[in-house]
Write a structure and sequence with these properties.
By secondary structure, this protein is an all-beta fold. Helices cover 0% and strands 50% of the residues.
Amino acid sequence: MAFKFEVGDVVKLASDGPEMTIKAQPSEAGRRYYAQWFAGKKLEQGEFYEDQLVLVKNKP
């Protein structure tokens, strides 16, 4: 199964927001990506569906 984003890609919400890094690809059942970002000095993380995200840049 091909995924739109790879671990390490930098994304953001389609509705804007902070840049986030893809931490893990979704399982076939869940179809949600795990992403993390910094809010100030605090590391945050969340789960997002593919259609909620847009690519900012590919992994370095």
